[in-house]
Structures are given as C-alpha cells and as structure tokens.
C-alpha cells in the first residue's frame, strides 16, 4: 500500500459511545477494545489480500484472528500523528475473520501533572481515537472496505488503571489490573461481541475548510520495532514456598542448558492458599521488553512484578541512590516501580490466565511476588518479549586490552537499549529524547551502522519543537515543554554531524531558516560587552551534571552570563557558517563568522583569569574555585584560542585537580578538543572512569560514574563507540573526506570495522617489537575508488583510492 495522501482517506476517527450514568471520561486514562468482523467466502483458488493503515490516540496493539501483531503508532507530537501500513494477507482465513485493536488513551491535560498524567513522551489530544483504513481484495478486485466507522464495535476495559511511582514519574505510572474485569478471547473471530456497542465517529480525517484536527497524519518515518521471545537466565534468590527453598545455599540458580541458553520458563511453581512467594530473576543483561506471566487458579491473589536495573542499598528515599556491585545481593534490594495483577482464577492447564503490561518495561532483574488468598496459585510460565529499534550494527572493535573490548560491548548494548521510536535518555526512568544526549547517540549510530533514519526523525522533531522566539525545546516529543538554551545549539551540531557524515545538502537546506532563528535568539541576548547574557528565569540554566553544580550550572551564572554559553554559541556559529557556505548562503556565512569573532573577543576581554591561561566560568566569578574544565574545553572548540595555545590550555586543564570536572558525556568534547590540538594520545589516560564501571558488573553504561547515579543505562556515556573508532582505529569522516589516523597509546594491536556513508572501512594495526626494533604494521580495506587519507604514526601522509592498504614502518624513534 503506497503512502496515503490526505484525500485518500475514507475512514473516520472512532471512539466508544459515552456510557450512561458515568461522568465524562476524557480526563482519565482509558483502555478500549475495538472489533471489525468480516467474512471471506471459501473456494478453490481464492486468494485474498488485506492492506491496512492504522493509527490511534494514544497507543494501539493490533490483532488479526487472534494473532498478536504490531504496536504503534510511532510517537508523534503536536504537529504530526504517524500511521503505519501493513500487508496482512498471511493472517486471513476462509470464513469469519476479525480485526481487533486494543487502544490506550492517556488523559490529555494542561497543565500537565508529572507522574499522574501518563508518559511524558507520548503525545495525546483531549479525546482518544482509532483510525483504520483497510481493504480486502482478490487479485485486483476490491472485495470489502473495512474502514473505521459506526460498523466497528467497541467496549471500554474497566480492569485497567495506572498507579504513579515518584521514582519514575516521567513514565506516568505502571499498571494495576483486575483480572475479574479482563475480557477473554476478544481478539478471536468466534468471540460473541453482541453486548458491545457500535463505535461513534469522532471526527473525519479532514474538512473542506482547512480546519485542522488534532491528528495531522504522516507515514511512519522509521522501521517497526522488533519483538523477540526471551527467557530469564538466572534465579537470583527467592522466599520458600511450603517451607522448601527454590535455591540452594543462598546461591543463585542457573536456568540454562549446556549451550548456555535459557532453558526454563519457570513452570510449575505452586503457591498454596494464604501463602506468599517471591522470586528475583535475572535476564542476564539490562533489557527492554514485555514481561509475560502465565498462571493457574489463584482467585483472590495479588501478583506484583517489580522492575529493577540492579541491586542497591535501601536508602528510604526515592531520590537518594547508593549503588555498588550491581549483582551483589548481600544486604541489597531491588528498587523500582511495579505492575500489579489480581487474578480472576479461571486459569486451567487448557487455558491459562496471563498478564502482560501494555507498554514495554526496562529491567535487568524482576521481582515476582505472589500473595495468595483463599485459593492456591500455580505459575505455569514467566518469560518476556524483548523489543527495540532494529539497529543492525556492522561496526566492530577489538584490541589487546580486554577492558576496552568489554567497554565496547557495553557501549553498543547501551545505545541499543536507548533506541525505540525515538532516541531516549534512559529507557527506565524517562524515555525522553533530549538534544544533548541525542546528538551523541546519532553519531554512535552512524559509526555502527550508517542507519540515519532515527536521526532524521530526531532532527525533524526538534525543528517541530521550535518556539516563536527561536528556542527549541530541550526534549521532544514531550507533552510538558522544557527549554534549556544550550541544548538548542546541539541541534545545529546534529545537522553539522550529519552533513559531515552523509554530505546531504538537501537536509541542510531544509533547516537553514530554523537554524538562523536559533542563533538569532542568542544574538538578541548579548550584553553590551558582547557576551550571551544569563539564562531567562523561565528556562533551565543547565550545562552538565557536576558535583559542584547541583542544578547543572555554576552558581556564579545565576545572575550573570555563563562563559561556556558564549563559547558554545561561538562554536555553533562556526558550524552554521560551514553549513550555510556549503549550501550557497555565503554572505550569511561570512556574517556568522564575524559574530563568532566578536563573541570570542568578548570572552578574551571579560572572562580570562588574570595571569593565567584559564577562563573563568563567568565574568562575575570571583573565587578561584569558579573555574571548570568545561569552559577551557569550549574555549578550544570555539576557536577562542588557537591550536598551539589550546594545547597548553588543555595540558593545564588536565593537571589542575581543582577544576569542576566534565561528566562522562561532556568528556566527548574534551576528546574533540584534544584531537583538534594534536593531543589525542592524552585521551588514553581518561578511560579509567569508564574502566571502573566494569568492576561493578554493569551490563550497560550508567548515567553518571558515581554511587548516587540514578540510571544504569544512559547512552550519552557510550563514548567508546566514537573514540575507539575515530581515535584508536583512526577512521574519521569529515566534509573534506575520510582520514585514517590510528592512535596506539599502550595498546599492542587493534582491529575493527567502521561504517561510513561510502561503505565499510576495515582497519587492523599492530605493534611488532623485536630486540631494539619497534615496527607499526597496518592494513585497511574500503570501497574501491574512494580516496582515503592515511596518516601513519611517523607522520607520513598518503592519499590512495586503491581500496586496500598494507604497510609496515619503523617507529622506534617516535613516541
């Protein structure tokens, strides 16, 4: 089915009729079921096709003839409602068929109440709705139209409600479900829906007078998320059921076969009436997925599924975390939100009762707890369906230091867990697409796979978030607007990174006007001295999570300009000038560079420490402690100092322990500054902070490298992806072309594959030492006819388009 134009839609938005005797439910979360039954005549040689386009406010799960299919729609925002198109021929059968759709509508409220009003990242209107355009054909002959209208039936599900959890309030709550009220078999063709009412039409797709609906339709811009059946790998610990422990001697119980794969779905665990049982299960690594629990009996029981990233100390305060070794059960607990289910008790060995949450959960560990009432309960299966963006990593890395290899593995997994329908800061706590985080994750993705589809939608999301004054929202889509001025500058960096990696001028041209609007906001806020003034009070003055900066910025910038913001603005002016010059707007590019020079002059005059290379965090800073690594690094990146002076400034920055330190993600810009000044070999001394995470038995990289870190999965920390490919392997794609310039440090060998827009580049190098000789051997392959610049450790520069390179050189006299 081709992408649908506005005039092609015949379907109408539908929703259940209001229930008599009930108040208006539009300010409540609702779960609703829809059915459309149709019949296909049987006969020899008959072959039917079913093409379907679907969307819903707020989320749907689609079924055909009882088969669970896909979830959607792709997250949209206030200006776009995405729809999906499917070909469903394989799910049809002769005779009676049914399309069944479960829809959850999150309450549309303004002002938004964090924690109570549903997930922050899922846009919704004041009223729920389902839109389906479907047609059955036999060959080229249309047989039936199945579009949403009053011929569809619907019913509200009264079993479901959301319960808020402050610890993960951005997610809007987890589920509490009453099994007695759950409808059984409603997705099957033979289900009796005679008690259901006809749906009512809410709104047509369009009208003839340009009056816009809340749902401006557009085709899904990214692939469907994958779903993959998985089993838990380990039982960590449990209570005793009937006095018999389910593990021995306090040690965890492996649930794997000889091949190391999960082999047990935890069948046949029996809990007598009036008893309690709990199990703590390990998925083996941090996962995003749908838990699936099956059970028999247990009417009057209560089941909870608590999701946790790790074992940690119980502090008694959701906002205070103390984490050590993540799988250390001793004197540690699992903390997190939980789903609750109250069994109806109908489950039998023939038809088991089951529970699965509507939205995916994030967990490494799950605590399954059962409190039985007057009837016993038997667990007949517990597993999960993993889900995520279908990233296919082609990039790889291996070196002589096994710690680096482990960091690579953790980094790739962290990125994958933070990719769904958008990039996400953390899949457990927020699932929000923040600009600072996303810029880094986009570059990680390019290097691993060359897949820029999620990146393109992210750049478009931020464009759509732009406010009338030029500012972009710092996270989008989000039903609760937030602005962090420095984050708007990262959007310009995203466009620059994409152009550097793909050379797509059409994308640059698309965003030129919005880009200039962002820069104009900063230009309009300059002080008489030429610095960007302090952040307006209604916005968040944030730059980095630093111990000395409780709210993300130096105290001295609360009522005065932040030096780093002027420097970030200057760096963005240069990036924008490069983009506009490439797209033909040369005069504007010249003007932007003039602005950059003026800002740098103002920083030099107002913010430099007396008798020092260092720059103060603000011209108002008086204390010697009001200096940070951030300001020095951005002075290099902004071109406030040249590469020679920048090298001296960076050396001083790395040796001065009194400076406020860069976080893990902000260290990306330190790596870029070192690269710019020819000091990249100094980067090898910075990896200790990442290596320490390996001792904590993490399976992903955390938000912060501190015991108080909130999230154990935050892809802004996955810097090994860029640095091991750009730095150690040395592959860099820029506007001028591709360069291979390896850095060895203390490593003896490294090899890997880097994805570029021109194809895969394979690099392998090793140090060969014998007696007093020390040689560097390198080989590389890439798509033929692509010109590559190779810079060897002896500073030899070669240009070649041969598609392969092999060379060994003596580096005995080179450091």
Question: Can I get a quick summary?
Answer:
With 815 residues, the protein is α+β, with helices and mostly antiparallel strands. Among the domains are: 6-158 and 180-222, Sandwich (Jelly Rolls); 227-388, Jelly Rolls (Sandwich); 562-680, no CATH class; 729-815, Maltose phosphorylase, domain 3 (Sandwich), CATH 2.60.420.10.
CATH architecture of the domain at 6-158 and 180-222: Sandwich
Task: Quickly count the helices.
Answer: 12
- The CATH class assignment of the domain at 6-158 and 180-222 is Mainly Beta
The CATH superfamily of the domain at 6-158 and 180-222 is Galactose-binding domain-like
- Global structural class: alpha+beta
- Please report which band the strand proportion falls in: under 5%, 5-15%, 15-25%, 25-35%, 35-45% or over 45%: 25-35%
Pfam families: Bac_rhamnosid6H, Bac_rhamnosid_C, Bac_rhamnosid_N
Domain Alpha-L-rhamnosidase six-hairpin glycosidase: 395-604
Domain Alpha-L-rhamnosidase C-terminal: 731-796
Protein name: Alpha-L-rhamnosidase
């Amino acid at each position: 089915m081709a992408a649908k134009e506005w005039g092609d839609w015949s379907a109408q938005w539908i929703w259940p009729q209001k229930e008599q005797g009930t108040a208006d439910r539009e300010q409540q979360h609702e779960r609703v079921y829809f059915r459309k039954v149709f019949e296909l005549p049987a006969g020899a040689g008959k072959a039917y096709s079913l093409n379907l386009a679907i969307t819903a406010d707020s989320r749907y799960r689609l079924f055909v003839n009882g088969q669970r299919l896909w979830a959607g729609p792709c997250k949209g925002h206030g200006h776009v409602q995405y729809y999906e198109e499917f070909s469903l021929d394989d799910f049809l059968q002769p005779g009676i068929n049914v399309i069944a759709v479960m829809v959850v509508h999150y309450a549309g409220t303004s002002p938004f109440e964090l924690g109570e009003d549903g997930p922050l990242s899922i846009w919704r209107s004041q009223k729920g709705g389902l839109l389906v355009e479907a047609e059955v054909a036999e060959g080229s002959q249309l047989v039936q139209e199945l579009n949403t209208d009053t011929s569809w039936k619907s019913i509200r599900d009264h079993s479901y409600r959301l319960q808020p959890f402050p610890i993960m309030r951005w997610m809007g709550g987890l589920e509490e479900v009453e099994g007695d009220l759950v409808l059984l078999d409603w997705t099957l063709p033979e289900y009796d829906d005679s008690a259901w009412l006809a749906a009512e039409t809410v709104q047509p797709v369009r009208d003839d007078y340009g009056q816009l609906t809340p749902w401006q339709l557009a085709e899904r811009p990214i692939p469907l998320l994958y779903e993959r059946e998985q089993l838990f790998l380990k039982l960590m610990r449990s209570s005793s059921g009937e006095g018999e422990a389910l593990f021995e001697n306090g040690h965890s119980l492996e649930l794997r076969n000889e091949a190391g794969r999960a082999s047990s779905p935890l069948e046949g665990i029996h809990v007598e009436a009036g008893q309690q049982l709990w199990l703590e299960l390990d998925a083996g690594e941090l996962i995003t997925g749908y838990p699936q629990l099956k059970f028999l009996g247990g009417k009057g029981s209560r089941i909870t599924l608590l999701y946790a990233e790790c074992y940690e100390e119980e502090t008694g305060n959701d906002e205070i975390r103390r984490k050590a070794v993540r799988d250390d059960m001793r004197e540690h607990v699992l903390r997190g939100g939980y789903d609750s289910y109250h069994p109806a008790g109908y489950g039998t060995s023939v038809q088991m009762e089951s529970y699965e949450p509507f939205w995916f959960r994030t967990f490494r560990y799950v605590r399954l707890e059962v409190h039985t009432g007057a009837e016993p309960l038997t667990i007949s299966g517990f597993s999960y369906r993993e889900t995520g963006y279908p990233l296919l990593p082609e990039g790889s890395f291996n070196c002589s230091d096994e710690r680096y290899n482990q960091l690579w593995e953790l980094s790739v997994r962290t990125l994958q867990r933070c990719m769904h329908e958008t990039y996400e800061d953390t899949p457990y706590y927020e699932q929000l697409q923040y600009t600072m985080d996303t810029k880094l994750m986009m570059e990680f993705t390019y290097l691993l796979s060359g897949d820029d589809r999620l990146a393109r939608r992210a750049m478009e999301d931020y464009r759509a978030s732009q406010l009338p004054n030029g500012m972009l929202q710092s996270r989008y889509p989000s039903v609760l607007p937030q602005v962090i001025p420095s984050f708007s500058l990262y959007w310009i960096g995203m466009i620059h990174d994409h152009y550097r990696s793909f050379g797509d001028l059409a994308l640059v041209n698309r965003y030129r006007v919005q880009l200039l609007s962002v820069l104009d906001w900063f230009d309009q806020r300059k002080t008489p001295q030429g610095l960007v003034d302090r952040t307006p009070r209604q916005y968040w003055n944030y730059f980095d999570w630093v111990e000395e900066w409780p709210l993300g910025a130096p105290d001295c910038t609360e009522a005065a300009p932040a030096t780093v913001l002027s420097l970030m603005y200057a760096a963005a002016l240069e990036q924008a000038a490069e983009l506009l010059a490439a797209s033909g707007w040369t005069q504007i590019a010249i003007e932007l560079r003039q602005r950059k020079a003026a800002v740098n002059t103002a920083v030099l005059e107002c913010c430099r420490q007396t008798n020092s290379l260092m720059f103060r965090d603000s011209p108002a800073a008086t204390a010697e402690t009001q200096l940070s690594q951030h300001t020095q690094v951005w002075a290099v990146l902004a071109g406030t100092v040249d590469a020679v002076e920048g090298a001296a400034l960076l050396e001083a920055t790395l040796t001065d322990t009194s400076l406020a330190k860069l976080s893990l993600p902000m260290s990306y810009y330190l790596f870029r500054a070192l690269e710019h000044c020819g000091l990249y070999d100094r980067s090898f001394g910075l990896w200790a902070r990442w290596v320490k995470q390996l001792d904590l038995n993490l399976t992903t990289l955390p938000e912060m490298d501190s015991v108080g870190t909130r999230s154990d999965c935050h892809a802004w920390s996955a810097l090994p992806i860029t640095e091991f490919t750009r730095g150690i392997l040395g592959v860099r794609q820029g506007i001028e072309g591709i360069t291979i310039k390896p850095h060895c440090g203390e490593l003896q060998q490294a090899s890997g594959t880097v994805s570029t827009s021109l194809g895969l580049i394979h690099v392998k190098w090793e140090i060969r030492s014998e007696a007093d000789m020390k040689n560097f051997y390198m080989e590389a392959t890439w798509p033929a006819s692509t010109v590559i610049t190779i810079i060897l450790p002896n500073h030899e520069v070669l240009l070649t388009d041969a598609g392969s390179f092999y060379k060994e050189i003596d580096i005995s006299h080179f450091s």
